[in-house]
## 1
Amino acid sequence: MALGESPVKQALRWIIEELQSNPSASMVKLIDLAGQKFNLSPLDSDFLSRHFAETRAKNQKK
C-alpha cells in the first residue's frame, strides 16, 4: 500500500489481489471485508460493487 493512498484504492487493490489468489471468492464477501478492513463508507462500498459489476459486464462482452 502506498503511503497516502485513498482507502478506496487500497480496497480495490486488495480485492484484486484476493481474486487473483482465489478466483471463486464471493465478490459480496470481499467487498464487505474490504469495507471493514479499510473503514469504507457505504458509498465507497457501493462504488466498489458498481465498479466490479461494470468490469465483469465489459469482460463478458469480449
## 2
Amino acid sequence: MPKSFEELPVWQKARELVKYVYDLTRKEAFGRDFSLVDQIRRASTSAMYNIAEGFERGSNTEFIQFLYISKG
C-alpha cells in the first residue's frame, strides 16, 4: 500500500487531467467565459481532492466511497 496519496496511480492520472484542463482553459476560446472556466477547473480538481481525502481517511470503505465520489 502506498504511503501517500501522491503515490497512487489514480491520483497521478487525476493530476495530469487537472494540468490538461488548466492548459486547455487558458486558450483564447475560453478567455471570455470566466464562469465556465471556473466550473471546469473546479470539477477537475474536485476529483483529485476526493481521491486524496479518501486515502487519508484510513479505511478501505471510506476510500472506495471517495473514489466513487471522484468519479462524479
## 3
Amino acid sequence: MQKSEKENSLIELTDRVELYKQAKNINITDEEAQNFVNSILENYFLDNDNISFLQKNGYNFFTFSNNELCFCLSAKTYKECCKNLLKPENEEKDHISLEKALINNKDYESYLIYISELYKKHYEMIANQEVCHYPNCAEKSIECKLYNIDFEKDEFVTTNRINPFDNNFKIGQNFFQQVTKDHFKFYGLCKNHYKNISSLNLSKQSSEEDVLNTHLLPILHRTFILRVELETIREEFLENYLSMKDEGYKALLVYRIKKISNQLKSIVKTLEGYIKNLQKNTNLKVIRLDVPSSHEIKVLDVLYPQISPDDFGLVNSINNIYVEENTATMSIENDRTNSLIFYVYNKKNIRVDNFFKQYLKIIKAKPKFEASFASNCALILTDNVLFTKQYFEFLSDEEKALYSALNKFRFENPNMGQEYLKMKFFAGFNKGNNFFK
C-alpha cells in the first residue's frame, strides 16, 4: 500500500501530471455532444443535470472506471493500480467516512481521531523523503513555515486547521481559532534556501526577485499539504471502501478523492512553471498595490480567483473536478505608513490574467476600491488569512460569523453573477469589508 520513495518524489510526480493533462476522453464521438460538454465545463457551478450529462459522456464523478488514469497520480490506470490494492469486503465492518460523520458529533470525533493518525503518518513519511525544490538544488528539505511570525509572542487567529480533514464548519459559527506554533508547517526547501527566503521582508524597495522568492512559499506549502491529503485519503479508501454499506457515501468519498487529486495536479503544474520562472522570469507578473496601513491583517497564501467582473469569465469552478484550478499568490506586508499588497500570477494563464486586468480596470477608475479589493481577495479567495487576536476579539459575534462564512462558504447552487455580487458588493466594494482604513 505504501508508495516507494521514487513514487512519492515531487519530481516524479511533476512528470506524471503532464500525462494526466494530455489524457483525452475517448467516450465522446459526437461533435454536437462534445460542444455541449465544452459549454458545460465553463459553468461556475454544475447542477444535477450538468453532472448527469457529463457522466453519460464518460466524465465519472462518483465512481472510478477501470481505464481512467488512477487518482493517486501513478500514471497507471485505476485497474492496474489502486483497484488491485483494495482490501476485501468485511461484512462486520461499516466505515464511517467524513461525509457520514458530519451528521453525528460522536461519529465525527471518532472519524477525526482515525483520520488524524493517518494524516500524521503520511505527513511524516513524505517529510522524510522531501528535498529542496528551489532551482538547481536537491538538498534534503527541512521543516519550513509559511509565516515568519512568532505566534507565541504575536497572537493571530485563522480558519486554518493543522489537519485539513478537520472541516466540520457550520453556518453561523465562528471558525477562527488562535494560531499556534504547529500551524502552517511544511517541507520543500533546504536549510540554506529557507533561511534566505524567510528572512526577506517585502517593502517598497523590494526587488521583483525578492517578491517571487517570497511567493514561492505558499505554493510549496499548498503542494506539500495536498500531497499528504491525497496519500491519507488514498489509504482510507483502500482500507475501507469495499466495506462501506451505503452506496451514497461511497460515491461522495470517490468525489472527494477526485477533487483532491485534481487540486494536487493543478498546484503541481503551477509549481513547475513557477520554479522555471525563478531562474529566468518570462511569464510571472507582479502587481503591487499601496493601501492605508493596517497591522490587523496578514496574508501569504495561494489565491483562488473565481469569476472575472466584466465578462463573467470562469476562473475556477467550485464543484467541477474536471476543470484545472487556476491560481495566483497574494501577500500583505505592513509598514508605518502603508500596507503593501503583492500579487503574483502567470500572465500566460488567460483566465487569471483576465481576472486581474478586469479588476484593475475597475480600481483604476476608482482608486479607493484598492483596499476593498485587497480585503475581499484576502478574506474570500485565500484559506490562510490571519487577523490579530486583539482586532478579532473586538468584533461582534455577527461579524465573526460573517467573516467565517465569507472565508469558507459559497452560495448554494451559485451562478457567476452571484459570485460577482459577493465579491463586489456583499463583501464590500461600496461599504463592506475594508481592513485598511
